[in-house]
Amino acid sequence: MKSWSGRFKEESSTLLDEFNESISFDKKLYKEDIKGSIAHCKMLNKINVLTDKESEKIQNGLKKIKGLMEEGKLEFSIENEDIHMNIECLLIDEVGKIGKKLHSARSRNDQIAIDLRMFLLEKTNGIMNCIVELLDVLLNISKRNIEIILPGYTHLQKAQPIRLSFYFMAYFQMLRRDYERFEDSLKRTNSMVLGSGALSGVPYKTDRGFLREELGFSSISENALDSVSDRDFVIEFQSCSAMLMMHLSRLSEEMILWATSEFGFIEIPDRHSTGSSIMPQKKNPDVFELIRGKTGRVYGNLMSILTVMKGLPLAYNKDMQEDKESLFDSVATLEKCLKILIEVMPEIKFNPQNMESGLKSGFLNATDMADYLVSKGMEFRNAHKIVGELVAYSLDKNKSLEDLKLEELKGFSKLFDGEIYNRLSFENSIESKVSFGSSSIENINKSFQSAQSFLSSKRNI
Ligand code: ARG
């Protein structure tokens, strides 16, 4: 029999039970639900709604249910709808009618809100730890490969030479911001909403400060109606997740591109590649393709919760039960993607020769030539035009800029002298970038230092 059956004259239809239930997925929240119930029970004891004996009995009952759940010995039922009512019924079976007192001064509305917040606090911390591990991997790759130079692209057309370390440190910065976004979201998730009741608070002297301490939250929500109505903390998590996946997807896209025979910049280890059922020669970068693909589902999860929430009147509406599956999906997807990257990235083999030969075509030192003319007194716009003409000239002759003879160069501008060849080397091009944050070794070393101190401050949080 349903705990809310009092006002109904008919049994609910089986189809309704199947349609209405969330136990098939919110059973994932059993730990949080029991933890919340134990804190609530202690609080009821503190304010004399439960006697010491009753409180002890209920707490033991809840702990027993948790143990049975962990041993896989519990069966939940869809007639009891969700994790909250299932646990309450199991408790009543276990401890008898005093179990029926536990739901005093609370509602499933504040129960689910606190459960979800507890769940997200733990999962967000786990994801942040994985990001730190991945950042560490990127920093190590960068440190190990400071000598490697490769073409940098804009519009996927060769642009200017850069160091491989500089490239990976760019992703370091992106993922560092992702970490900080998750970290910042915790401030708002970390709000103790239990004690809000259905929507307007409860007619008991509920000690919410005690609940906050018991459950380890940093603050107490200030408006009961808001506490049970909003899922902005879920949306924020989904939004941080979408951003992180966007970065992982771009990295993945580049690994896929670099692993092609056209680029040949990297080799993905055999143990992280897949084959084809028909083409014997194939070695496919499925890991990176899947990360790129899974980005789509995480974006979808964000859109899903935003859309669920957009038209809801205050306070709780059953629509909000739809917040969970997409949330669990994003958490699991992020965990999987981060873990596989932490394993694969350090094993990628770089091919510096191919990267270097990529520098030979594409006039990656054309900007350096223009800057050289500027250093000799020419206006940048004029220098740009002359070097553009030199590029066209070299294309006709099938040569690179550094292959042109001094007399040929002088034909375009008298300002050229022998020094130009030095300026055109790719290494010098990189080192000439002296602006803070640029690709020179000095700047890269500075970025290593700041990365290192970021990581040491965040490790094992
Ligand atoms: N299973 C519900 C959910 O996940 C719990 C809250 C139900 N509250 C209610 N008033 N029906 O949203």
Question: How is the topology of this model organized?
Answer:
Blueprint: H1 14-20, H2 23-26, H3 30-46, H4 52-70, H5 83-95, H6 108-144, E1 149-154, E2 157-163, H7 164-189, E3 191-192, H8 208-215, E4 219-220, H9 224-229, H10 232-258, E5 266-267, H11 286-309, H12 324-344, E6 349-350, H13 352-360, H14 366-375, H15 380-397, H16 406-410, H17 420-423, H18 426-431, H19 441-458
Parallel strand pairs: 3-4
Antiparallel strand pairs: 1-2, 5-6
The structure holds arginine.
Arginine is lined by residues 22, 26, 82, 108-109, 112, 316, 318, 320-321.
Describe the structure.
With 461 residues, the chain is mainly alpha-helical. It folds into three domains: 100 residues, Orthogonal Bundle (Fumarase C, Chain B, domain 1); 249 residues, Up-down Bundle (Fumarase C, Chain A, domain 2); 99 residues, Ribonucleotide Reductase Protein R1, domain 1 (Orthogonal Bundle). Helices cover 61% and strands 5% of the residues. It has a two-stranded antiparallel sheet. Helix 3 runs antiparallel to helix 4 and helix 10 packs antiparallel against helix 11. The longest helix has 37 residues. It is elongated, with a radius of gyration of 31 Å. The model has no long low-confidence stretch (mean pLDDT 97). Bound molecules: arginine. The site of arginine has 10 residues, from helix 6.
